[in-house]
Amino acid sequence: MKKLLVVLGLLALLPGAAFAQDPSTYFVDYFANNPGPVPGAADQVLRIINVGEGGTPLTSPVGDICANIYVFNNDQELIACCAQRITPNELDSASVGSQLTNNPVTSVVPTAGVIKVVTTLAGTGTCSPTSFSGAADATQAVVFGTHLQVTGGATFVTETEKLSSPLSYNEGTFLTESCSFALYLGSGKGTCTSSVPGH
């Protein structure tokens, strides 16, 4: 009994115990070798699937999620943001060149940068990248991304599933406030889009 109490006492003293962590999570991806909105050029694609954690297609809008997308250039400047409502078991897709980086608030299409995706339960409201509709929770979706790899003059396409990362309160606030600022300054620029294939 004394040994058990000692072990429990030591566990309680360990820094960064799992129950002390912020539960908010999101997805982070990158893009590189971005040709921009060039017709016929190879492009990269971000794909987001609502896994049905909160409902089924029959219960929609219960179980719908908001996929809030934030696009940064390689100077850490937010260049575009958008949000898409995704029903349970639905696939959302966004082309990096023609949907995510084609209308940057900076007016300069970046060749490389970072994409962040925050998924929240949508409820009955409208999805907006300037305000989360609920708690950020990466378990509500799976995200895949293709990438253009250039080696020895040849271009290859790779695809990976994104792992979730912890989302701090400060970063979440930064994303929504930066998006609001970019959309205000952009006067039509700084927006991106994603789409549900077949709709």
Detailed description of the structure:
The protein has 199 residues and is of the alpha+beta class. It has a single domain (23-186), classed as Sandwich (Hypothetical Protein Tm1070, Chain: A), CATH 2.60.290. The protein has helices at 2-13, 96-100, 169-186; strands at 25-31, 45-50, 65-73, 78-86, 91-95, 113-121, 141-151, 154-161, 164-166. Strand 3 and strand 4 form a beta hairpin. The longest helix has 18 residues, at 169-186. The protein is globular. Residues 1-21 have low confidence and may be disordered.
What's the arrangement of strands in the largest beta sheet?
Answer: 4-3-6-1-9
Globular, elongated, flat, extended or rod-shaped: what is the shape?
globular
Low-confidence regions: 1-21
Radius of gyration: 19 Å
CATH fold type: Hypothetical Protein Tm1070, Chain: A
Secondary structural class: alpha+beta
- Total individual domains: 1
Query: What is the percent of helical residues?
Result: 10-25%
CATH homology-level superfamily: TM1070-like
List the secondary-structure elements in sequence, H or E: HEEEEEHEEEEH
Architecture per CATH nomenclature, i.e. the level-2 architecture = Sandwich
Notable traits:
199 residues, Hypothetical Protein Tm1070, Chain: A, alpha+beta, disordered N terminus
Blueprint (SSEs and pairs):
Blueprint: H1 2-13, E1 25-31, E2 45-50, E3 65-73, E4 78-86, E5 91-95, H2 96-100, E6 113-121, E7 141-151, E8 154-161, E9 164-166, H3 169-186
Antiparallel strand pairs: 1-6, 1-9, 2-5, 2-7, 3-4, 3-6, 7-8
In short:
The protein has 199 residues and is of the alpha+beta class. It has helices at residues 2-13, 96-100, 169-186; strands at 25-31, 45-50, 65-73, 78-86, 91-95, 113-121, 141-151, 154-161, 164-166.
